[in-house]
Amino acid sequence: MGGSSFLLSVTQRRAATATASSFRSLVPVVSNGQETAHPPNTLAGGHQPFIIRPLSAAAATAKSRANSGHLSYNERKAAAKQLRRETWDRHQQRLERLKTRRDNSPKDVKKTVFRSWWDKEMEYHNKLRRTAKQEGKPWRIRVAVMVERPNVVMPDYEDYELEWMDLKNYLMSYGKQYPDETKFMFEPDKPEDHIIESDEDMLAGLPFVPAPRETEADASGNVKTLDRQLKTKVFLAVKSGAEGNRNGPRWTLPSAIPQEDETLLQTAERAVSEAVGEDLQLWLPSNAPMTINYRVYNKNMAEDFRGNYFGEKIFFYRLQYDSGDVDEEAMTADDYGWLTREEVVDRITDERGRHQAKFYHYML
After folding, report:
1. How far apart (Å, rounded) are the C-alpha atoms in residues 333 and 305?
2. In the prediction, which pLDDT does 279 show?
3. Considering the domain 110-153+218-363, what is its CATH architecture?
4. What's the distance, Cα to Cα, between the start and end of the chain in Å?
5. Residue 156 CB contacts under 8 Å (≥ 6 apart), including other chains
6. What is the pLDDT of residue 188?
7. pTM summary value
8. Is residue 175 pLDDT above 50, yes or no?
9. β-strands 139-149, 311-323 pairing
């Protein structure tokens, strides 16, 4: 017990000494009628002084009022308390400002544009279903296919990605440094280890010549080859009149009407083989369609084509290219092309307008 009491008293004396030192740093010292300030506190060892952050104008005024030698002890204590209260209030006000600092900045721009189109599209589809039900007419099922060839090479980096990689490579050139006597990690760096090579220097040192990222088909504008637009995805688009359009063939995706004894996925495979031949080998990632769209039959269509149907429910499947190519001798489509999403959207915009093109823009 005696030892515990002794340790407790030592702890109390140390705490009292630290409190007195902190208080003296806030209160001026009067010596021989002259007011002097204590020297700044120092770190352990007395080598480096503490770094004192500059105060704002309001905080500096409150602190000078709290440290004024013309005030009594209670007045200085009240002023110090007021300083702490004002500091806390400013901190809370800043936290509130941070919550709303980005309210006026643009956000969710693309999401808002998509929702503005999507909500109107869903409202239109609901109206079509109600109208078909009121007229007592059924829907004809059609299956359309998005044959996708993935990108062959990596896409080009964005500007911000290039800047980040340059900064990262620069920082990585300065690793951890250890004394020469420590051999437990690795050998000391050599001067040549810190040489930063550019992409051109690395390509020049390869034992082969890399193939160009831009092909001859890109330069000539040939869209009937898979050796184009290697940095992005391309889709098989056909120009066909199989959809019953009285204005003639138009650019679309391969499609077909399901038969009674086949599934929608089998119909998707048949749609491709009928349009561009059977040489294409495709990979089918799922039995489920990717999306659905509606098409209403109008009176301008041939009577034998539209029959008693109100319109078509078009189920879109995504199939990925594996091997092979289009068999031009066996295809039934008038024309075809391996087009990027932007090229598909541009051609549909010219033929059907921006509303239909917007659907392909989001789907592809």
Report:
1. 18
2. 94
3. Alpha-Beta Complex (3.90)
4. 81
5. 231
6. 55
7. 0.66
8. yes
9. parallel
